């Protein structure tokens, strides 16, 4: 996620045509920086462009996000291995949660995704596995729409009850929260919770310790669809929210097709962005702040 909103570059790397807001010189300098970081994997130009875009060409923020991204994917292997979309655990998670890319964009050029429960039955509600599946969905969204002006998350709280909360795994929440906030290369602008109830206060009490203050300030709560309509274009909202984008099932099915089409991509990238700690150059003596400090 972006850490700053410094001036955007206007130069476009010739070899990364889909990144008009990425400065070519910044890309070259990040490539040189990576050469001096033997513990980090080699990144292709489009990968570097993604991180620069998310950070508005701020090189220090880009370096930090790359470090966080690769270190997360190395340390949180339970989230980033066995990502076969056809495996039983992922298939089970897909029967419990819906995820969809909403069509169109806001007037600011922000892209949107939403998620919601498919069933309220908690019999097979494996929280870490669901968070892993949701992370897969977010990674694919970044691959498909990472070059947007901004990104918006919508989460429908309909059907969530105390039975789900008893199965929450806070260790998994902490991992996913760090990855989403500090490593995922997106320009997060807004978070919308839909159909909120009194239970939301308890959920926020659990999640707030893992959320940065600026991320907390992005949160919008919607008890009814009326307030949602003032924030998100009707053309982009599911029919069930009074929008015109199609039904929950249609949007879910469309995204599942994208997941299956990228089955090989998920497998190929499991080991692509790993850190080799044996090659990490030690920090100078007296260095006080580590990556997770």
Please characterize this protein's 3D structure.
The chain has 293 residues and is α/β, with parallel strands linked by helices. It has helices at 24-35, 45-54, 59-75, 77-80, 88-96, 127-145, 162-165, 170-183, 199-207, 213-216, 225-229, 248-261, 263-268, and strands spanning 97-102, 110-117, 150-156, 188-194, 219-222. Mean pLDDT is 90; it is low at 2-15 and 287-293. Helix 3 (59-75) runs antiparallel to helix 8 (170-183) and helix 5 (88-96) packs across helix 6 (127-145).
Euclidean distance between termini CA atoms: 18 Å
Order of helix and strand elements from N to C terminus: HHHHHEEHEHHEHHEHHH
The number of helical runs is: 13
Q: Overall pLDDT, averaged?
A: 90
Biggest sheet, strands in spatial order?
1-2-3-4-5
Give the total of beta strands: 5
Percent in strands: 5-15%
How is the secondary structure organized here?
Elements: H1 24-35, H2 45-54, H3 59-75, H4 77-80, H5 88-96, E1 97-102, E2 110-117, H6 127-145, E3 150-156, H7 162-165, H8 170-183, E4 188-194, H9 199-207, H10 213-216, E5 219-222, H11 225-229, H12 248-261, H13 263-268
Helix pairs in contact: 1-2, 2-3, 3-8, 5-6, 6-8
Describe the structure concisely.
The protein is about 45% helix and about 10% strand.
């Amino acid at each position: 996620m972006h850490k700053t909103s410094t001036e955007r570059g206007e130069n476009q790397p010739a070899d990364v045509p889909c990144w008009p807001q990425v400065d070519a010189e910044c890309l070259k300098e990040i490539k040189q920086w990576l050469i001096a970081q033997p513990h980090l994997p080699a990144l292709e130009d489009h990968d570097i462009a993604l991180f620069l875009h998310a950070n508005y060409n701020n090189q220090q923020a880009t370096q930090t996000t790359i470090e966080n991204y690769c270190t997360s994917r190395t340390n949180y292997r339970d989230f980033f291995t066995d990502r076969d979309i056809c495996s039983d655990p992922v298939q089970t998670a897909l029967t419990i949660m819906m995820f969809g890319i909403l069509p169109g964009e806001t007037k600011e050029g922000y892209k949107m995704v939403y998620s919601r429960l498919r069933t309220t039955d908690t019999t097979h509600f494996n929280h870490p596995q669901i968070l892993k599946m949701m992370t897969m969905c977010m990674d694919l969204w970044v691959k498909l729409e990472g070059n947007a002006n901004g990104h918006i998350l919508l989460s429908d709280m309909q059907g969530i009850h105390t039975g789900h909360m008893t199965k929450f795994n806070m260790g998994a929440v902490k991992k996913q929260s760090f990855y989403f906030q500090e490593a995922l290369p997106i320009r997060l602008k807004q978070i919308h919770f839909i159909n909120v109830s009194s239970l939301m206060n308890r959920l926020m009490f659990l999640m707030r310790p893992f959320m940065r203050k600026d991320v907390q300030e992005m949160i919008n709560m919607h008890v009814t669809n009326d307030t949602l309509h003032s924030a998100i274009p009707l053309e982009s909202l599911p029919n069930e929210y009074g929008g015109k984008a199609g039904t929950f099932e249609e949007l879910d099915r469309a995204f599942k097709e994208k997941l299956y089409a990228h089955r090989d991509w998920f497998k190929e990238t499991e080991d692509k962005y790993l850190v080799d700690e044996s090659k990490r150059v030690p920090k100078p003596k007296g260095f006080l702040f580590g990556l997770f400090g």
